[in-house]
């Protein structure tokens, strides 16, 4: 059980429930193939049944960590930082991102957009979920839209979401990993017929890296 003082710091975004942090190759979307330092923040109530990091859902399992420590670990490895989860926008991202950018970092986020946007971002990857839709404010500022395709109906959902983002937002369809053999042909066919979309694959899983 955390103290009242610690909880106050968490509420302010000075401490965050850190699940893990690691330096690796970005495996998905626009920046795939590039080196980046990932900060995975615990806590998510969106609850995708196919989520591959369900251990991130319960923030209470992940110790509140001061952002000063998180920042020092990050900048020792890379100037490109990806904040993911869980759902990072559950928390106030302003203190962490402001300090990272002041240290010369480019700061990216991977989010469902289900919570109010906080923080300063160089790249926003919006990956919306049907069970808890994004807030309206995030659509016009998203740099890329990444829709996970689990079944054919998800393509309809993808088009509904694409209609809400800005004209320069890059559109990706990504097969859900456990269904990839069935879904990849569906996505390939759809992208060929609708070339405004691109295919995103979880290349880090093919490379067997985090």
In words, what does this structure look like?
This protein has helices at residues 4-12, 67-75, 94-102, 153-162, 180-193, 203-206; strands at residues 15-25, 35-41, 64-66, 80-84, 106-111, 123-126, 144-149, 170-175, 197-199. By secondary structure, the chain is of the alpha/beta class. The protein has a 9-stranded mixed beta sheet with strand order 3-1-2-4-5-6-7-8-9. It is globular. The mean pLDDT is 96. Keywords: 4Fe-4S, Iron, Iron-sulfur, Lyase, Magnesium, Metal-binding, Queuosine biosynthesis, S-adenosyl-L-methionine.
Keywords:
single chain; 210 residues; alpha/beta; TIM Barrel; 9 strands; 24% strand; globular
Short characterization:
This protein has 210 residues and is α/β, with parallel strands linked by helices. Helix content is 26%, strand content 24%.
């Amino acid at each position: 059980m955390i103290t009242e003082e610690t909880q106050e710091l968490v509420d302010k975004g000075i401490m965050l429930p850190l699940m893990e942090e690691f330096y690796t190759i970005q495996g998905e979307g626009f920046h795939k193939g590039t080196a980046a330092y990932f900060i995975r923040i615990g806590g998510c109530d969106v609850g995708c049944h196919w989520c591959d990091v369900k251990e991130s859902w319960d923030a209470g399992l992940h110790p509140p960590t001061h952002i000063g420590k998180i920042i020092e670990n990050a900048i020792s490895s890379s100037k490109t930082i990806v904040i993911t989860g869980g759902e990072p926008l559950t928390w106030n991202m302003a203190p962490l991102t402001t300090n990272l950018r002041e240290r010369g970092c480019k700061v990216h986020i991977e989010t469902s957009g289900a919570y109010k946007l906080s923080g300063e971002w160089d790249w926003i990857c919006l990956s919306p979920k049907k069970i808890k839709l994004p807030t309206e404010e995030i659509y016009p500022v998203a740099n890329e839209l990444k829709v996970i395709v689990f079944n054919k109906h998800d393509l309809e959902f993808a088009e509904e979401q694409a209609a809400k983002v800005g004209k320069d937002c890059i559109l990706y369809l990504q097969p859900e990993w456990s269904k990839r053999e069935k879904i990849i042909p569906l996505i390939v066919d759809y992208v060929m017929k609708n070339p405004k979309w691109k295919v995103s694959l979880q290349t880090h899983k093919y490379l067997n890296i985090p």
